[in-house]
Every structure is written in C-alpha cells, then in structure tokens.
Amino acid sequence: MHRFKPLRLSFIILILAFLETSLFANFTFYNLKIELLLMLIVFLSLFSIKKQIYICAFFCGMLKDIFSILPFGINILIFMLIAFFIQRIPKNFFREEKLTFAALVFVGTFFSGLISLSLTGPYSLNFFKKFINVILSTTFISTLVSPLFFSFFKLVLIKNESK
C-alpha cells in the first residue's frame, strides 16, 4: 500500500474535478460522460492506505456534489461506499492489472448511475430511455477509457512517489 503525497494528490483531484464538471460536461455527445473522479477513487482504493482513500473520496464527492443536481452529500456517500467495498477485496487479488481496474470502474460507474437515476426521477415515463442513455453510455465510455487513466494515475502517482 502506498501513501501518496498530499499536495500532488490534491492537485490531481482539482484538475480532474475541473475536467469532469466543466470541460467534459459541456462537450457531451449522446450524454457520454467520463467519470474521472470515480476512476481516481477506484485507483486509490486499490493502491493507497485507508485513511487517505476516505479523505480523498470525501473531497472528490464534495467537489462533484457542488456541481451536481443531486441532493448535497449523495456523491460523497457514493464515493465513500465504492472506496469501502473496494477496500474489502482480498490483498491477493490482481490489483496491478488494467482489467481489474476497468471491471471495478464498470461496477462503480454503474452503481453511481443507478443511485443518481433513482434519486432524479425513477417514476418518469422515459425511465428506460434515461437508463440506456445515461447509465449504460457513461458506464461503457468510462470503462473503455479506464486503462488509459490507470496508466496515467500509475505514472503520475506511483512512479514519481520515490522522487
């Protein structure tokens, strides 16, 4: 388990929050969004110590809640739950694999989307359309780009940790 430098981690969280909430939110194509903060929480849950994971999950959720239409605290709860459950994965599990990271991003994004959709309008007539457009598209696009971000997080956080 690693203990990442707080200043570097804070800078990465702010950059990812900016990209996810402003830049990528304005350039959506068929409601495709990339869950960058969730990917960071999954990565930290695989490689970091518990205290640092929960602090980062709280701040990532808070940053996402500030720009979200959901009630304040929902993204904090979602990120904390994702970090909690990933921490329960046995230590001998393949943590270094991109496929493991992609699978956990898939599950986390799907879970996050279900919670968000259930809170924003499960009783509407176009629930199935929202489910397909929002949850599945976001889940699949985040899963497809997750190996790229796994390599990026590993390069920025782990490789430079010894310096």
* Secondary-structure element string: HHHHHH
User: Which regions are unreliable across 5 or more consecutive residues at pLDDT < 50?
Assistant: none
Helices and strands: which structural class? mainly alpha
Number of helices in the DSSP assignment? 6
Q: What is the assembly state of the chains in this entry?
A: single chain
Q: How far apart, in Å, are the first and last alpha carbons? A: 17 Å
Mean pLDDT over the residues: 82
* Total strands: 0
How many structural domains in the coordinates? 1
The largest β sheet comes out as: none
Based on CA inertia axes, which overall geometry fits?
globular
* Portion in helices: over 70%
Radius of gyration: 15 Å
Strand percentage: under 5%
Question: How is this structure best described in words?
Answer:
With 163 residues, this protein is mainly α. It has six helices and no strands.
Q: Summarize this, please?
A:
This protein has 163 residues and is mainly α.
Describe the protein's topology:
Layout: H1 6-26, H2 36-47, H3 50-66, H4 74-87, H5 98-120, H6 127-158
Helix pairs in contact: 1-3, 2-3, 2-4, 2-5, 2-6, 3-4, 4-5, 5-6
Keywords:
73% helix, single chain, mainly alpha, 163 residues, globular
